[in-house]
Structures are given as C-alpha cells and as structure tokens.
Amino acid sequence: MGKELNEYKTFLKSNLSKKRYTHSLNVAAMSRELAELYGEDKDKAYFAGLVHDIAKELPREVQYDYAKKCTLDVSDIELSSTPLLHAVAGAQILSEKFGIDDIEVLKAVRYHTVGSAGMSRLAQIVYLADLTSEDRDYKDVKKYRKFAHTSLEKGMYEALRYSIADTACKGNTIPICTLEAYNEFVIKLKSS
Ligand SMILES: [Fe+2]
Ligand SMILES: [Fe+2]
C-alpha cells in the first residue's frame, strides 16, 4: 500500500477533524470486519476504509481541481455537488500524491458515496462500512448494519434504496451511476 499505515494515519489526523478521523478508523474497522465475513482481503479493506474520506475536509476548490484530473468516469452532477466531490478527489490524491496504483482501492474510494454498476466486492464493503460504521447514529442504522451483515447484495440493495429515496425526498440530484448500481442489485436479488 505504498507508505506504511501509520504514515496515512498521521496524514489523516492532521488533515481531518477529530470526529472525521474517528469515523475513518471506524470505517476501516467495519471494512475489515465485513471483508472477514465475506472472504475478501482484510488488509486491503482496512486500508480503503481508512483513506476513503482523505479529501473530505480540503477546501472545495482544491477538491474540485483534484476531481477534474481524475481519470475514472466523473459526471457533471458529481462535479457540481460539494458532498460528492471528495470521493473523486480522494481517489485522485491517493493516486497522485501517494502513488497508490491498486485500481480496486482507488475505485472503492471513488465510488464510496455514489456507488456504480459493476462495483467490486471491496467497493461494496467500503460503501456499506461507511454507512454502518460504529459512529453512525441515524435512526435505522442498526437495520442497515444487519443488512450489511446478511449479504453484500442485500446490504447494497437496501443501502442504495435508502440513499436514493432520501436524496429524492430532499430534492437533491442523483448521479446516473447510483441508479445503475441500484438497478443492478434489484436484478441480482430477484434472480437469487
Ligand atoms: Fe465520504
Ligand atoms: Fe465517510
């Protein structure tokens, strides 16, 4: 993973609020837990979870500049939404500044807010860990934590369903890749 874990922790500690640093550690721990449950690479999951919000507290313009350079697909909807920018910027920072070239890790970070069709199991794990980590305290968190531990497909289906409904309720835009992810998991669940 390029640099040692402790170097990333030091970087995150000085670039994130205490609350978001704790969130990052919790998402890393939940990613490792889910990777263990689903037979995926635990160290890789821990690392991707740890760094998923690496760009979250950078100024918007800095996030935007990184996101613009990202070679992974980025929609205009994402570029125009401040809460969505950090995931794309994060993938770019990891590649550009830290020399991370593991595409699975980069994609897990890049899609952790919006999802996409064809997500790897690692990307699904980080997506679900972000939604269900120990520091999360929204009303139905226990329910979604349970879904995440039932199966990746069930976890993703329920998480995307919730996210899309909630976003639409608030009258916000929904990237096409989120809808594509949702459709994919609806079909997967129906055929299983
Ligand atoms: Fe995030
Ligand atoms: Fe997060």
Q: First CA to last CA: what distance? A: 35 Å
Characterize the main sheet.
Answer: none
Task: Extract low-pLDDT stretches.
Answer: none
- Any idea of the CATH class? Mainly Alpha
| Structural class label | mainly alpha
> What do we call the CATH topology?
Hypothetical protein af1432
The small molecules bound here are: fe (ii) ion
Percent strand equals: under 5%
Descriptive overview:
This protein has a single domain (5-191), classed as Hypothetical protein af1432. It is built from eleven helices and no strands. Helix 4 (60-69) packs across helix 6, helix 8 (121-132) packs antiparallel against helix 9 and helix 10 (152-169) packs across helix 11. 70% of the residues lie in helices and 0% in strands. The protein has helices spanning 5-15, 18-37, 42-51, 60-69, 76-79, 82-96, 103-110, 121-132, 141-150, 152-169, 176-191. By secondary structure, the chain is mostly helical. The protein starts with a helix and ends with a helix. The mean pLDDT is 95. The longest helix has 20 residues, at 18-37. Bound molecules: fe (ii) ion (2 copies). The site of one fe (ii) ion (FE2) has 7 residues, from helix 6.
Secondary structure topology:
Blueprint lengths: L4 H11 L2 H20 L4 H10 L8 H10 L6 H4 L2 H15 L6 H8 L10 H12 L8 H10 L1 H18 L6 H16 L1
Helix pairs in contact: 2-3, 2-8, 3-7, 3-8, 4-6, 6-7, 7-8, 8-9, 8-10, 9-10, 10-11
Structure, briefly:
The protein has helices at residues 5-15, 18-37, 42-51, 60-69, 76-79, 82-96, 103-110, 121-132, 141-150, 152-169, 176-191.
Task: Throw out a few tags for this protein.
globular, mainly alpha, Hypothetical protein af1432, single chain, binds fe (ii) ion
